[in-house]
Amino acid sequence: MSAQSPQLHPVEATATTEQISEDARRAAEEARVGWERFEQLIAEDKRVEPRDWMPNNYRKTLVRQVSQHAHSEIIGMQPEGNWITRAPSLKRKAVLMAKVQDEAGHGLYLYSAAETLGTPRDELYEQLYTGKAKYSSIFNYPARTWADIGAIGWLVDGAAITNQVPLCRASYGPYGRAMVRICKEESFHQRQGWEILYTLSHGTQAQKQMAQDAVDRFYGPALQMFGPPDDESPNSKQSMAWNIKRFSNDDLRQRFVDMIVPQAEALGLTLPDPELKWNDERGHYDYGDLDWDEFFSVVKGNGPLNHQRLAHYRAARDEGAWVREAAAAYAAKQQQAAHDAALLTA
Amino acid sequence: MTETAQQTEQIPAGGVIAADPAERSLWPLWEVFVRSSRGLSHVHAGSLHAPDASMALRNARDLYTRRNEGTSIWVVPAAEIAASDPDSKGGYFESAQGKAYRHATYYTQSEGVPHL
Ligand SMILES: [Fe+2]
Ligand SMILES: [Fe+2]
């Protein structure tokens, strides 16, 4: 291809210019074909895969969303991990360990998916470490009592599931596949949480009160996990046009409210919202305004535990660094030994 | 030329991944394949980072078979996998198209004839 240019253009300078414009034309043509194919995949509701051409903004949006999601799973281990040693029975302890281990797995599935978009794993870890990346604000609230572990499983994992089920059909293949795996594992998380609350609400008066307090604390923040109201969520529209997001924040929030009302009744507990009421006309429960000032304040870093969560993550990473380095050094040494042995026998 | 320039303006900036991100991490990337039960093939489950094959296997067990999902695991260095070029846009697989006669449904004369 380039070998032909000098023949056609004996004057070297002309050939170079010609070559540059030829390269530009080819790049433009590749972009056009790539873009058309991408548009077609989205229009036909098919999946985009890692090596496909994609718009930079689509890639950027996904790296941000998928890695934030991964960071949330990782930081999300802290409030519950904190209760493993204090779980009230061996059974509850085993269950909680299994759940926390699942969350670690969810983080890893999602990091794998994010990595296929071109950002190396270590860079993603770095973004969380330096505080550059965000994670779900809900994990900046403390788990004060054992009942909070119940409320987290029921409400926080419940909200996460509501959000995640439609993401199984996200247009980016690796993200959707990670979500399928995650959703399969999540349903036990919500049920075990609900069961903790059920046991407490059928125990002593003090235990029932503990369960009620936990629900009172987690109800609002759990509803806010779906993000700001639709009219304050400018990026949602593009995400929906790209088939990443399938339902708006408010639609998902409504779906969640409709689900938890009867679940709360079955617990014998109340949801802390005086305006919560069935609306026959809409066929949904109406619910009161949420405290968005608090939400944005927590997002900005002023939640009860933002500082502590990140400090704990950093300490764990720092303290584990020598293990990662030693394992890499050992692997390199083993590889060298195998290489040397092969040379000797050759 | 002008036409190309106009078209280019409508196309958002974008592209394909140029460098392999996995090569820029401390531990290499491994692809994990799990056999869910005897008699079935190993199927791709996902990927993970690990310093060497034996750690990759252990991590794969903890990450992808926490609920009896597997009876056997393969781990393969991601860098060792050769893949067909997605840019060939179907051309690579074209020879299979338009050959309906490779499928039993192509042959209709035998309809209604038992066991055929
Ligand atoms: Fe999770
Ligand atoms: Fe969970």
From TrEMBL, chain A:
The keyword Glycosyltransferase does not apply. The keyword RNA-binding does not apply. SUPFAM superfamilies: Ferritin-like. Keywords: Oxidoreductase. Pfam families: PaaA_PaaC (PF05138). Gene3D superfamilies: 1.20.1260.10. One of its GO terms (cellular component) is cytosol. It comes from the Bacteria. One of its GO terms (biological process) is phenylacetate catabolic process. GO terms for molecular function: phenylacetyl-CoA 1,2-epoxidase activity. Residues 1-27 are annotated as: Disordered. InterPro entries: Aromatic_CoA_ox/epox, Ferritin-like, Ferritin-like_SF, PaaA, PaaA_PaaC. Its EC number is 1.14.13.149. PANTHER family: 1,2-PHENYLACETYL-COA EPOXIDASE, SUBUNIT A (PTHR30458:SF2), PHENYLACETIC ACID DEGRADATION PROTEIN PAA (PTHR30458). This is 1,2-phenylacetyl-CoA epoxidase subunit A. It comes from Nesterenkonia alkaliphila. The lineage of its organism: Bacteria, Bacillati, Actinomycetota, Actinomycetes, Micrococcales. The gene is paaA.
